[in-house]
Amino acid sequence: MAETATLSRPAAATLPAIDPGALLAVQNLEAWYGESHVLHGVSFDVRAGEVVTLLGRNGAGKTTTLKSIIGIMGKRTGSVRFGGEETIKMSSRSVARLGVGYVPEERGIFSSLSVKENLTLPPIIKPGGLTVDQIHELFPNLKERAGSQGTKLSGGEQQMLAIGRILRTGAKLLLLDEPTEGLAPVIVQQIGRTIERLKGQGFTIVLVEQNFRFAQTVADRHYVVEQGRVVDMIPNAELDANIDKLHTYLGV
Amino acid sequence: MFTIFGVPSAALFGQLLLGLINGSFYAILSLGLAVIFGLLNIINFAHGAQYMMGAFVAWMLLNYAGIGYWPALLLAPLLVGAFGVVLERVMISRLYKFDHLYGLLLTFGLALIIQGLFRNQYGVSGLPYGIPAELRGGQALGFMFLPNYRAWVVVASLVVCLVTWFVIEKTKLGAYLRAATENPTLVQAFGVNVPLMITLTYGFGVALAGFAGVLAAPIYSVNPNMGADLIIVVFAVVVIGGMGSILGSILTGFALGLVEGLTKVFYPEASATVIFVIMVLVLLVKPAGLFGRAT
Ligand SMILES: Nc1ncnc2c1ncn2[C@@H]1O[C@H](COP(=O)(O)OP(=O)(O)OP(=O)(O)O)[C@@H](O)[C@H]1O
Ligand SMILES: [Mg+2]
C-alpha cells in the first residue's frame, strides 16, 4: 500500500488546490462497498457552468464517485460540498433536494412506468427547470413514444429519457454516468449537442466517460481517475498536447 | 326451481354466492399482501391478525363507544392502519437491511402475540355483531334468495379493489409506488421520501385488512381466530396469483372463491383442499404464479 501511495504522488502533486467556493468541491472522498475499500481519496472541483469529465479505466471508481456525491454509497468519508453546503452525511434525498440530478450508468428506466410517467417521476425541487415541452423539443422521440412502456425504448431513447427526466426538476448540477455507452454514433452526437445546449443554459455537468474523443467535444476540463483517486487534471485546450499521457492512463 | 347438472339451482347459486363472498375477502386480503410485498419485500404474516383486529375494533366501537357499522367501516381501518404504521416504524423498518426471512418471522410472531392477547381478553367463543339495519333482509331473485348484506360485501370489496388498482396503476401516486417497488434507491436519489412511502404503504395494506375485518364482522362471529383460519387460504391465493401482482391478486381472489363454491356443490369432499391442490399445480407449472413475473 505504501508503494502505491508513493507512486501516485508525483501525478497528484501536479493537481491544483481544490477551490472550496466552487459549486461542487470534493475532497479526500473515500468510499466502501461492504468491506471493500474502493475510493481512496478523490478530490476535484467543478465551477458553476462548467462541464467536467471523469475519465478512467474500467473499475477506476468513476461510478462510485458519482454515487458518493448523490449519496447512495453506504459508507463514505471525506468532504463533498455542494453550493457551499457539506453533504457527506446527507441522505440522497436531501442531496437531490439541494439541486443535484443523477443519471445512473444503467439508466434506471422503470419498466412498470410509461415513458411519460418516467419523464415526470422526479419531483420538481427548485424553480427554473425545463418544461415537458422543452424536453420534448430536445428529444422528439420521447414525445412520440410517451405512451410506451419505459423499457420498450431503444438504448438511445432510454438514455434521452434518463437525461430528460432530471431536466424538469430544477437541478443545477447534473451527474451523467457514461451517457454515450453502447450507443450509435448519431445518437452520441445528439447527446453531445444536448450537453452543449444544457451548458449554454447554465447547467453544471459532471460527465463520466471512457470515450475521451467524445469528452473532448463537450468538456472544459478532464479529471483522470485511477484506482480510486484523482491523479491528474487536464484542461480541454491541453488535451491534444497530453494525448500520450492520456493513452497511458486509459490503457488505450 | 330448476336443476343444473342434476343440482338444484338454488343450491348452486347459493354456493356460488358463498364462493363470491369468500372470494371478496380473499381479494381484499391478498391485495393488501401484494401491495405490502411489492414495496417492502416482506410477507406480512400479521395480515390475518390485522383483519381480526378490524372486526374487533368495529365491535369495540359499537359496544364501548356506541359507534355503529358505517362510521366503523371508515374508523376501524384507520385505527388498524395507524397500528400498522407504528409497527412498521418501531419494528419492521429495523429489519430491511437483513434477509427477508426476518420480516416474515417478526410478523408471524406479532400475529401470534396479537391473537393471544385477544384470546385472553375475549375468549374464543366469538362475539355477535349485527347486520346494519339498512342491509337486513334480502331479495328473492326467483332462482335464489340474495341477502342484502352479502351483496353489499361483494360490491364493497370490488369497489375497494378496483379503486386501489386504479390508484396504483393510473395515478401519479401509484407511479411513485411502482417506481419505488422497482428501484427504491433511485427514487430516493430523485428526492422522494421513500421511507415515508414505505411506512404509509404498509399502513394502507394493513388498513385494507382492517376493512375486510369490518365487512366480515356481521357475517362471521367476531373471533380472535378468524384471521388465522382465513389467512392460510389467502397465502395460497397469493402464491397462485403471483406474489406482488396487484391485478393478479384481485382476479385470483374472486376466481378461487368461485372455484371453492363450485367444488362444494359438485365434490364437497374436496372443497377444503381444492385451493391448495391448485396451488401445487400452479407451482409445478408456473412457479412465479399465474400473474407473476419471473425474477
Ligand atoms: N456493488 C459493488 N460491490 C462491490 N464492489 C463493487 C461494486 N460496484 C463496483 N465495485 C468495485 O468498485 C471498483 C470501482 O467501480 P466503479 O463502478 O466505480 O468503476 P468505474 O470507474 O465506474 O468503471 P466502469 O468504467 O467499468 O463503469 C471496481 O473495482 C469494482 O469492481
Ligand atoms: Mg462506471
What hetero molecules are bound to the protein chains? adenosine-5'-triphosphate, magnesium ion
Q: What order do the strands of the largest sheet of chain B run in, or round the barrel if closed?
A: 1-2
The amount of helix of chain B comes to: over 70%
Q: Which percent band covers the strand fraction of chain A?
A: 25-35%
Tally of separate domains of chain A? 1
Number of strand segments of chain B: 4
Predict the CATH topology of chain A: Rossmann fold
Decide which structural class fits the backbone of chain B: mainly alpha
Distance between the termini of chain B: 51 Å
Oligomer: heterodimer
Identify the most extensive interface between protein chains.
Answer: A-B, 24 and 18 residues
Low-pLDDT parts of chain B are: none
> How many strand segments of chain A?
10
Q: Report the sheet with the most strands of chain A, covering strand number, pairing sense and barrel closure.
A: 6 strands, mixed
Radius of gyration of chain B: 19 Å
SS field, number of helical segments of chain B: 11
Shape descriptor of chain B reads: globular
Mean pLDDT of chain B: 93
CATH first level of chain A: Alpha Beta
Strand and helix order of chain B: EEHHHHEEHHHHHHH
Helix content of chain A: 25-40%
Protein model, in words:
The complex is a heterodimer of chains A (252) and B (295). By secondary structure, chain A is α/β, with parallel strands linked by helices. Chain A has a single domain (24-250), classed as Rossmann fold (3-Layer(aba) Sandwich). In chain A, 36% of the residues lie in helices and 25% in strands. Chain A has 10 helices and 10 strands. Chain A has a 6-stranded mixed β-sheet with strand order 6-7-8-3-9-10, sandwiched between helices. Chain B is mainly α and 295 residues long. Chain B has helices at 9-40, 47-65, 69-90, 100-122, 148-170, 172-182, 184-189, 194-216, 226-241, 246-266, 274-285, and strands spanning 3-4, 7-8, 138-140, 145-147. In chain B, the strands form 2 sheets. In chain B, strands 1-2 form a two-stranded antiparallel sheet. A two-stranded antiparallel sheet of chain B has the order 3-4. In chain B, helix 1 (9-40) packs parallel to helix 5 (148-170), helix 5 packs across helix 6 (172-182) and helix 9 (226-241) crosses helix 10. The longest helix of chain B is centred in the N-terminal third of the chain and has 32 residues, at 9-40. The interface between A and B is medium-sized, with 24 and 18 residues. Adenosine-5'-triphosphate binds at residues 33, 36, 38, 56, 58-64, 105, 210 of chain A.
